[in-house]
């Protein structure tokens, strides 16, 4: 069972790393794709790529050996990096939801006032405040430090310290899950309302003639049930992936802060901890495949790579070959026309 789980998580980690790297390779080299919304996606993707490369592989090795095989200093680094990247990715997801709402509610103001410099500043601030909150256990204040927990098969800090440490626990829970969850639910709900209101407005292609009881005619805005259903499914996928990957661990940590470590079984702790590691895979798939422009760009790249050119479609090497190819095509057309005329006669 352990071998199967190790192989499965290894495959998922490779897929997540490849997907996040693909997003970066598609957006960064192309100027027309480096929009404000896509730059926020680049920040999220970069954070998740670091998770797939620097955190998940060591968690898989620890799970397979059922022990921490590295140094204590590296354990502290891994625990710090896990907390830092978890807070940072959750903040990026909430910022993306806010950006998408304002770009939909007021596109002119959003396009004129939000630039790439604002995205860079917001990203740096996000990384700074995530690094700040994740750094407290590095000082080892009376037991609040990063160390290996066999039940979680990873390095983390204790959640059962009493006293003023509860304030730190609540801040971590607020930053990594509670506030981002509230933000994305509110913003995407407002975005859905704005989209429905815009769809009901009277505009070309959205008009339906309706006959009144007195025989007169009137026009009403026509709503598309398919688009409404598609929007509902999109919001369900975005919000659901965030809640599934981060919600259980946050709830378990809060319960542990009251009951003490060891309240849940080792298998439950490990399962919930690995759900957090699914975030890089789920986020990259959700935000990539729900972006129409990125899907089209990937399709064009794959089509260019795998399309087999026929001999007639082969590009000429110089101007002589180019003119010769034109002459050959004209001759072929004339010969085909003569054959068709002969058959008709």
Automatic annotation (TrEMBL):
<comment type="similarity">
    <text>Belongs to the G-protein coupled receptor 1 family.</text>
</comment>
<keyword id="KW-0472">Membrane</keyword>
<dbReference type="Pfam" id="PF00001">
    <property type="entry name" value="7tm_1"/>
</dbReference>
<keyword id="KW-0812">Transmembrane</keyword>
<feature type="transmembrane region" description="Helical">
    <location>
        <begin position="167"/>
        <end position="189"/>
    </location>
</feature>
<keyword id="KW-0675">Receptor</keyword>
<dbReference type="InterPro" id="IPR017452">
    <property type="entry name" value="GPCR_Rhodpsn_7TM"/>
</dbReference>
<keyword id="KW-1133">Transmembrane helix</keyword>
<keyword id="KW-0297">G-protein coupled receptor</keyword>
<feature type="domain" description="G-protein coupled receptors family 1 profile">
    <location>
        <begin position="19"/>
        <end position="287"/>
    </location>
</feature>
<feature type="transmembrane region" description="Helical">
    <location>
        <begin position="119"/>
        <end position="139"/>
    </location>
</feature>
<keyword id="KW-0807">Transducer</keyword>
<feature type="transmembrane region" description="Helical">
    <location>
        <begin position="272"/>
        <end position="290"/>
    </location>
</feature>
<feature type="transmembrane region" description="Helical">
    <location>
        <begin position="6"/>
        <end position="27"/>
    </location>
</feature>
<keyword id="KW-1003">Cell membrane</keyword>
<protein>
    <recommendedName>
        <fullName>G-protein coupled receptors family 1 profile domain-containing protein</fullName>
    </recommendedName>
</protein>
<dbReference type="InterPro" id="IPR000276">
    <property type="entry name" value="GPCR_Rhodpsn"/>
</dbReference>
<feature type="transmembrane region" description="Helical">
    <location>
        <begin position="39"/>
        <end position="60"/>
    </location>
</feature>
<feature type="transmembrane region" description="Helical">
    <location>
        <begin position="80"/>
        <end position="98"/>
    </location>
</feature>
<feature type="transmembrane region" description="Helical">
    <location>
        <begin position="233"/>
        <end position="252"/>
    </location>
</feature>
């Amino acid at each position: 069972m352990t071998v199967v789980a190790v192989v499965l998580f290894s495959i998922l980690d490779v897929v997540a790393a490849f997907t996040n790297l693909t997003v970066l390779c598609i957006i960064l080299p192309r100027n027309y794709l480096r929009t404000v919304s896509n730059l926020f996606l680049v920040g999220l993707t970069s954070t998740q790529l670091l998770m797939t490369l620097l955190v998940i592989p060591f968690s898989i090795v620890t799970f397979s050996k059922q022990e921490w095989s590295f140094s204590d200093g590296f354990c502290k680094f891994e625990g710090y990096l896990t907390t830092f990247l978890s807070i940072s990715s959750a903040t990026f997801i909430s910022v993306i939801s806010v950006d998408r709402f304002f770009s939909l509610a007021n596109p002119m103001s959003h396009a004129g006032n939000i630039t790439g410099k604002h995205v860079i500043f917001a990203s740096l601030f996000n990384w700074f405040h995530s690094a700040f909150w994740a750094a407290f256990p590095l000082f080892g204040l009376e037991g609040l430090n990063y160390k290996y927990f066999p039940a979680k098969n990873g390095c983390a800090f204790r959640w059962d310290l009493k006293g003023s440490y509860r304030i730190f626990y609540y801040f971590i829970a607020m930053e990594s899950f509670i506030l981002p969850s509230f933000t994305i639910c509110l913003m995407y709900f407002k975005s859905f309302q704005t989209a429905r209101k815009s769809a009901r407005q009277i505009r070309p292609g959205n008009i339906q003639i309706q006959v009144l009881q007195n025989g007169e005619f009137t026009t009403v805005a026509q709503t598309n049930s398919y688009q409404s259903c598609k929007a509902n499914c999109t919001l369900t996928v975005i919000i659901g992936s965030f809640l599934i990957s981060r919600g259980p661990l946050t709830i378990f940590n809060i319960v542990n802060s009251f009951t003490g470590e060891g309240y849940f079984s080792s298998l439950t702790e490990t399962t919930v901890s690995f759900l957090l590691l699914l975030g890089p895979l789920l986020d990259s798939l959700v935000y990539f495949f729900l972006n129409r422009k990125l899907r089209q760009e990937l399709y064009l790249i794959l089509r260019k790579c795998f399309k087999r050119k026929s001999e007639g479609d082969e590009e000429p090497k110089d101007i002589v070959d180019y003119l010769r190819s034109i002459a050959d095509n004209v001759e072929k057309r004339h010969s085909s026309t003569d054959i068709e005329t002969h058959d008709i006669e």
